[in-house]
Amino acid sequence: MQMRKLPWIAVLPAVLVLGLNACVKDNVSVNTQYYTAEEFATLSAALDLPAEPIDYTVVLPVHLTQQGFKAPIINNHKAALGRVLFYDKNLSQNKTVSCASCHKQELAFSDDKAFSEGFDGRHTKRNSLALAAAANFETSYGGDGGGSFSSFSEAVRFFWDERANSILEQSRMTIQDDIEMGMPMHEVVARIQTIPHYQVLFRKAYGPTGISEALLLEAIREFLNSFVSVNSKFDEGLARTNDPFSDFDIFTSQENIGKRIYMENCASCHSHNLSTAVENLANNGLDAYYTDQGRALVTGISQDEGIFKVPFLRNIALTGPYMHDGRFNTLEEVVEHYNSGIQDHPNLDFRLRNPFTLTDPKRLELTDSQKQALVAFLHTLTDEEFVADVRFMDPFK
Ligand code: HEC
Ligand code: HEC
Predict the structure, then answer these.
(1) What is the mean pLDDT of residues 56-60?
(2) Do the beta carbons of residue 362 and residue 283 sit within 8 Å?
(3) pLDDT tens by residue, 93-125
(4) Do 287 and 343 form a contact (C-beta atoms < 8 A)?
(5) Would you say the CB of residue 268 lies under 6 angstroms from ligand 2?
(6) How far is the centre of ligand 1, averaged over its atoms, from the C-alpha of 323 (Å)?
């Protein structure tokens, strides 16, 4: 290709760098709004970030604010830093794995493998959980942020057995885990401190305090808390009627039939608005004998055997395989489990028992078209905007 004369716009960045550098030297205070040209040049060596920090402001739809959900206040610089950390393989011992390796955006931040591959090729013992919440990640899933929970003890915690009380705890456990990332926290901090773009990102987010474990974990949390998935067809329908039980005019009749089946049989645990946790933990009768005892591994009590977190079903069509061990590949298999496959475990939840006897497992006895309708409804929970949102994408060049 023939070289053309450089357009004037191409030389502008160089002019800006030179010009602004002078100002930076005179003015020591940190510009918390924008990157200086010098900062931007440092960032741009490795990262593909826009010159102005991305706006992570969360706006919730009215049908959620009316129910008392509060939009999280996100600090843009902290979220920008958290995003880079989330995608950075430096967080794992041999620099092969980042958070995003097992939490892929196009899969609503889950993994399509039953067990994810950790840094040295070994596999996690459970299926990766999707990281997409309704109001915001931490208040929907955790307690410390307030959200829809009246007390911390009611709050949903993290992991399939809810062994982490906060995202800070969860992230620390994950980074240090000898299968997942295998990195002692002080080594992560030491490594991050040597990377020029983190000097800029931490200074923007936290001022001159320097890089520490606490701030690193907080930034990851800020990024996760900006994950707000509220643009599914279901949300649109709910926004128009404000009543999850009435038929939605934008739904097909099949989707409305599926919604009715869901509200009758599933919402008592997975929630009517797909945004609040009704039941935090339950046994849903996958097996009569569990090889993974779930919550009991944390508490040691027999009433917790086979008890697992009730996962949110937003974006569920994207997050297979399903259940803590990824045993079901499709939503059809999941529906068949609830229809005819529930096992009589001693801790089986009463909602999944025969409502008349409360002894044997419930059998829904759905027809084929009802099963298809339930699956069609579950597909209305997909938020295409969320999984394509550039603000959550890999920022590395
Ligand atoms: C090697 C794969 C892997 C990596 C790397 C990984 N995760 Fe996970 N993540 C998982 C698995 C598997 C689970 C479920 C584990 C369990 O419940 O025991 C999980 C669970 C979680 C949860 C809990 C979600 C919930 O609803 O309870 C959060 C939050 C999370 N990961 C965030 C992160 C962050 C942040 C990072 C990077 C610091 C990260 N993960 C790195 C595989 C991974
Ligand atoms: C008693 C509470 C309860 C009821 C009622 C219930 N579930 Fe579940 N559901 C759970 C629990 C607990 C899990 C996780 C179980 C595990 O992995 O061990 C789960 C898991 C799932 C999953 C897999 C989620 C994932 O991320 O892997 C889907 C899909 C699902 N349920 C759909 C349904 C549908 C559809 C219905 C109604 C037919 C229903 N559930 C009724 C408690 C319940």
Answers:
(1) 89
(2) no
(3) 999 999 999 999 999 999 999 999 999 999 999
(4) yes
(5) yes
(6) 14
The CA distances from residue 115 to 101, 112, 118, 126, 160, in Å, are: 12, 9, 9, 6, 13
Distance from residue 141's CA to the centre of ligand 2 (Å) = 16
Kindly report, residue by residue over 172-221, the tens digit of the pLDDT.
999 999 999 999 999 999 999 999 999 999 999 999 999 999 999 999 99
In this structure, of 31-45, 152-166, 177-191, the range with the lowest mean pLDDT score is: 152-166
Proximal ligand: closest to the CA of 321: 2
Q: Which of 141, 144, 170, 229 to mutate to test the pocket of ligand 1 (most atoms within 8 A of CB)?
A: 170
Residues enclosing ligand 1, CB less than 6 A? 91, 97, 99, 101-103, 116, 118, 124, 126, 128-129, 131, 141, 158-160, 167, 170-171, 174-175, 180-181, 220
Q: Is the pLDDT of residue 22 over 60?
A: no
CA of residue 358 to ligand 1 center, whole Å: 35
Residue with tokens 């690193």: 216
Task: Say if CB 269 and CB 282 are below 8 A apart.
Answer: yes
Mean local confidence (pLDDT), 318-340: 98
Spatial separation of the C-alpha atoms in residues 199 and 124, rounded to whole Å: 32
- Tokens coding 211: 């890089």
Cβ neighbours around 83 below 10 Å, total: 27
- CA 284 – CA 33 distance, rounded (Å): 49
Cα 37 to Cα 42, 108, 198, distances in angstroms: 9, 34, 16
Q: Is the pLDDT of residue 76 over 50?
A: yes
d(CA 338, CA 343): 10
**Ligand 2 midpoint to CA 311 (Å):** 7
Please choose, from the candidates 56, 308, 65, the residue with its C-alpha nearest in 3D space to the C-alpha of residue 205: 56
Amino acid 334 reads V
Q: Answer yes or no: is the C-beta of 286 below 6 A from any ligand 2 atom.
A: yes
